[in-house]
Amino acid sequence: xxxxxxxxxxxxxxxxxxxxxxxxxxxxxxxxxxxxxxxxxxxxxxxxxxxxxxxxxxxxxxxxxxxxxxxxxxxxxxxxxxxxxxxxxxxxxxxxxxxxxxxxxxxxxxxxxxxxxxxxxxxxxxxxxxxxxxxxxxxxxxxxxxxxxxxxxxxxxxxxxxxxxxxxxxxxxxxxxxxxxxxxxxxxxxxxxxxxxxxxxxxxxxxxxxxxxxxxxxxxxxxxxxxxxxxxxxxxxxxxxxxxxxxxxxxxxxxxxxxxxxxxxxxxxxxxxxxxxxxxxxxxxxxxxxxxxxxxxxxxxxxxxxxxxxxxxxxxxxxxxxxxxxxxxxxxxxxxxxxxxxxxxxxxxxxxxxxxxxxxxxxxxxxxxxxxxxxxxxxxxxxxxxxxxxxxxxxxxxxxxxxxxxxxxxxxxxxxxxxxxxxxxxxxxxxxxxxxxxxxxxxxxxxxxxxxxxxxxxxxxxxxx
Length: 465
Fold this sequence. Notes:
Layout lengths: L5 H4 L3 E5 L8 H10 L6 E5 L5 E2 L2 E4 L11 E4 L3 H13 L4 E4 L11 H14 L2 E3 L6 E3 L4 E3 L12 E5 L2 H13 L6 E4 L8 H9 L6 E6 L5 H12 L4 E5 L4 H11 L6 H11 L2 E2 L3 H13 L8 E5 L2 H13 L9 H10 L11 E2 L9 H13 L4 E5 L9 H21 L3 E4 L8 H6 L5 E2 L2 H19 L2
Parallel strand pairs: 1-2, 1-5, 2-4, 5-6, 6-7, 10-11, 10-12, 12-13, 13-14, 15-16, 15-17, 17-18, 18-19
Antiparallel strand pairs: 3-4, 8-9, 8-11
Helix pairs in contact: 3-4, 6-7, 7-9, 10-16, 12-13, 13-14
């Protein structure tokens, strides 16, 4: 049964129950997306009432199919789910995604949920859901969720969520920012497979490097802890979990029937397991990509360079309050930096005020970065305002792109992280739009500090294990 999880992500045959020609329905969205998988496997639509749906010839019942079923996609009313699963079992179905709602999140549905568990035990079919929003796996080009393909782009990050629409929102939000998931699965009510099962699966998936979780509550907390601790030694796990107020408990129970546990217990558990908890969900996406795009942050000493003293003061204040160091450079390092940035107005103390130079010679930024990292006096370098010259003129965009490419090469060669900071986003600057295809740009103090904390925490934990 455990091995059957793979049939969600690379099935050879799919049977769809509830596909629809009606616009703005789950059956239309999911059915349309799954039909694009036909180059990878056979996709069949089961419908006893219509000869054609979504332009495809239908089958009256699953028994009429010419082959066994790897994956059943079920989008029918709750009372019809169990009979549908029993029909699929007769066709040797391996896995089933149940989009249908009306199970554990309602009092009336609890009996149906128990019946679902019985079907799993009797047939060996692994269930995603019920009351889930599907999944996608871009490594195999399967899209079994409502999202249009234009929002999907491959990455080595897997997202496991107890809220399907949060997965949809983050996928859309991340696409323009080049912060995408390569795999996404909505767990729903977890009548069978749980967050822990998917965590374990992705830990063994060679195309997954980072795992992000959205949690409202946990079944089998001890098993989750044991699995997560093992996984975190190989792959970073980033988590956002609901808080523990009475209002949140009520909302979680009505949503996915999850009990929200004690904050103290949960925080202690994830700290021991090496999981990184973020305070804002979207910061989890940024941090997940930071693990892919930065070398490890091996210490808390940070250098800052900016155009104009104001940003240096703000960053120094925020970093110091967050427990990071912005150390004064040694006399020898300051002298080397002054040789490069010789203008009498420019400051080579930490922070370095590049904007006080008479002429913006962007090539000097590369020399400064090399000198800082080779000195051994800093563990990471924050550069503010990159991307903010593109709005001035086209030449500014060209220079900024050249600098970003060089910084990316230095970061990889010297294995020390460079963090680019700007309040401007892809809506404001062409440079930032292009830079974000290869590098992260951090757009708030909170986002930057959450990333620094996550990278440093993970490095410390891995070093101790």
